[in-house]
Amino acid sequence: MHITNILKLGGSVITDKKGHYSIRYADVYRIAQEISLAYSMCSKRMLIVHGGGSFGHPTVAEHGGVENPMATSQVVYFMRELNMVIVDALNAYGVPAIPMDTHAIFYRDCEKFLQFFYKPLEEAIEKSIVPVLYGDVVFGCKGSDVLSGDEIVWRLSTVFKPCRILFASDVDGVYDKHPSEVGAKLLDVVSLHNIGVIEFGSQGRTDVTGEMKAKLLYGLRYWHGDIAEVLIFNGLKKGRIYNALCGKDVHGTRVIL
Ligand code: IPE
């Protein structure tokens, strides 16, 4: 099935990762407005995935993982709360978005392959409904684990073959060294075969799924012949999400094989 976009809203774009359970409401509503405009102008068939930000990572860290049943229940609880805020904002701006509980449709099999039941997503997209998935707990043959929104995006792309895979981040894209370091340069294009030479560093925040480098490593794992365009850009800068969804020029990093 071909769709227009898969958009990942990074947890750092929709929440304040320095806090606990803290939402960037002004950004969430602005983003919902941009998505709404794109929905009416150019992007009816799309999937949205959001990250865990200050709802997911601290909860996982507090419990030291998600193996413990109470940890699973708490992570799912907080992620669904965050998901409802995003879906509510989209609905408020007229986007027919629905929550799609990731833990209920994804499963990690014994070969560590990520299986998922894609029929409900396919049907929703056919009806121009916008499913909103999220980084979550994933049950699996070898136990439960955290499933990052980035991996979800790449895996979804193998079935839904989007024109564009869009990662809205809190930085402008991929830099040659950590963006907070003096002299860090934004890379216009990054090849997945060259990620070994980039000094990603650590942002010193609680992130249990590995930030920018992990995003690119998943790309290497899931890359397939139908991938057209992959863009990492800053979702906190006004207008960029709309422009990216409608295929206009956006300042950021293009990812190639
Ligand atoms: C993390 O998802 C999900 C949980 C911690 C439960 P992501 O890895 O996609 O989240 P962000 O975008 O880095 O916040």
How would you explain this protein's 3D organization?
The chain is 38% helix and 21% strand. The two termini are 22 Å apart. It has helices at residues 11-14, 25-41, 53-63, 69-92, 102-105, 119-126, 149-160, 211-222, 240-245; strands at residues 3-9, 46-50, 97-99, 106-108, 114-116, 130-134, 136-138, 145-147, 162-169, 189-191, 229-234, 252-256. The model has no long low-confidence stretch (mean pLDDT 94). It contains 9 helices and 12 strands. The protein has an 8-stranded mixed β-sheet, with helices on both faces. The longest helix has 24 residues, at 69-92. It has one domain (5-256): Carbamate kinase (3-Layer(aba) Sandwich), CATH 3.40.1160.10. The protein has 257 residues and is of the alpha/beta class.
Radius of gyration based on Cα positions:
17 Å
Overall number of strands: 12
CATH topology: Carbamate kinase
What would you say the CATH architecture is?
Answer: 3-Layer(aba) Sandwich
Bound ligands, named by name, code or SMILES: 3-methylbut-3-enyl trihydrogen diphosphate
- Roughly how much helix do the residues carry, as a percent range? 25-40%
Q: Hey, roughly how much beta strand do the residues contain? A: 15-25%
Instruction: Name the structural class.
Output: alpha/beta
Write out the strand line-up for the largest beta sheet, numbering strands in chain order.
Answer: 3-6-2-1-9-11-12-10
Count of distinct structural domains: 1
Number of helices: 9
Shape: globular
Order of helices and strands: EHHEHHEHEEHEEEHEEHEHE
Name of the CATH first level: Alpha Beta
